[in-house]
Design goal:
By secondary structure, the chain is of the alpha+beta class. It contains six helices and nine strands; from the N terminus they run H-E-E-H-E-E-H-E-E-H-E-E-E-H-H. The strands form three sheets. Strands 7-4-6-5-9 form a five-stranded antiparallel β-sheet. A two-stranded antiparallel sheet has the order 1-2. The protein has a two-stranded antiparallel ribbon with strand order 3-8. A hairpin with a 4-residue loop joins strand 5 and strand 6.
């Protein structure tokens, strides 16, 4: 995916809305990436203007995995290197055959595998599902987000908000199909797919 797609304000309006609706769970504060790749919390409300700037590439935001009530609408498995990237892509293929949807996103060193839920779920139940996947598929070493069952101090774990430019690599990272092809050719088209992602069937959450 290119570093910067040339998008007008009008073209960005709907993608900004999709990014907010699908990937952001709290708006009272937000994580922002520093030039060294680390994140810091900004104790101010997140605005639509900042999400617009994220897509334009002038700032890079993160997103918290849990809302203020320790509930979440998605889970992420994070792999940190090339072998992990291959394992996650292979997992998407197996899960597709099992009819358990997942969405693979490239990252600077490896990859992120996203799982979306029909309704917000308690962090404890999300992590139970994630730990089950890690154990069943022998994914030792993968990081599971959220990292907390419930919030105790602070806003908890975060992950890079999709489609921003990573401050350390200067690159955008898109989503890919289980076969390794881009989910769609452009950011706008990928966000159209992610506007209504397939969610994890309830039968998998009850295991």
């Amino acid at each position: 995916m290119s570093r910067q797609e040339t998008l007008t304000s009008r073209e960005l309006a709907e993608p900004v809305g999709v990014l907010i609706d699908r990937f952001i769970q709290r708006f009272d504060k937000y994580p922002r990436q520093a030039d060294n790749g680390s994140y810091f919390t900004v104790e101010k409300p997140l605005s639509r203007r900042l999400v617009y700037a994220h897509l334009r590439g002038s700032v890079t935001l993160g997103t918290y995995l849990l809302d203020e009530n320790s509930r979440g609408r998605f889970m992420v498995l994070d792999g940190d290197d090339g072998p992990d990237r291959r394992r996650l892509l292979a997992l998407t293929q197996v899960l597709e055959e099992m009819e358990c949807p997942s969405y693979y996103e490239d990252s600077r060193r490896g990859g992120h595998l996203w799982f979306f839920f029909e309704e917000p779920m308690p962090g404890e139940e999300i992590r139970r599902f994630g730990k089950g996947l890690i154990g069943y598929f022998n994914l030792a070493g993968m990081e599971l987000y959220p990292k907390q069952d419930r919030l105790q101090t602070g806003p908890g774990s975060l992950i890079r908000l999709p489609f921003g430019i990573h401050k350390k690599s200067g690159r955008r990272y898109g989503f890919y199909t289980p076969s390794g092809e881009p989910l769609a050719p452009t950011i706008r088209e990928q966000l159209q797919v992610l506007k209504a992602p397939q969610t994890v069937p309830e039968r998998f959450l009850e295991l």
